[in-house]
């Protein structure tokens, strides 16, 4: 809050609260208690509103344990035939042993598996990964994806030379309904 608000609290709200509390204790009339309540209620409501907004807008803090798991194409970023095709064709996994496993699929069956290593760059506040890629994957994904955080989740974006941006979100692969 600003300087004017601080002056209001220190020179008006606190002294009037002390005076009204003393009068309330002496006279035992509820109207003085109500004055105190109505003076402080907007401040507590603003504080509660501020904390609620902060909770819903603060980006999620990502740890290494959050990064481990299976990833599929996020079809909510771009929907349509291309996103569905990518979803049915590509997925990957990062294991706790820092292995990177990329799956090429067709009709829900894994037709090719590529293995690599995952390295974490420690100089960033959020875990940045560098993937040791098989040369066959260099046309599909890049080795340094960008991590984007949302208030309750995160996703990776790979700048693919062949497909443009590919969005991967953590999740289990499931057969699409046709």
Summarize the structure.
The protein is 37% helix and 30% strand. The chain has 178 residues and is of the alpha+beta class.
Keywords summarizing the entry:
Lipocalin; 178 residues; elongated; alpha+beta; eight-stranded antiparallel beta sheet
Structural class: alpha+beta
Task: Characterize the main sheet.
Answer: 8 strands, antiparallel
CATH architecture of the largest domain: Beta Barrel
- The overall pLDDT, averaged over residues, is 88
Question: What are the low-pLDDT stretches, counting only 5+ consecutive residues below 50?
Answer: none
What is CATH's topology name of the largest domain? Answer: Lipocalin
How many beta-strand elements?
8
Sequence of strands across the biggest β-sheet: 5-4-3-2-1-8-7-6
Cα-based radius of gyration, to the nearest Å: 27 Å
**H-E string:** HHHEHEEEEEEE
Any idea how many domains?
2
Strand content: 25-35%
The CATH class designation of the largest domain is Mainly Beta
Shape verdict: elongated
* Helicity range: 25-40%
Number of helices: 4
Distance between the termini: 54 Å
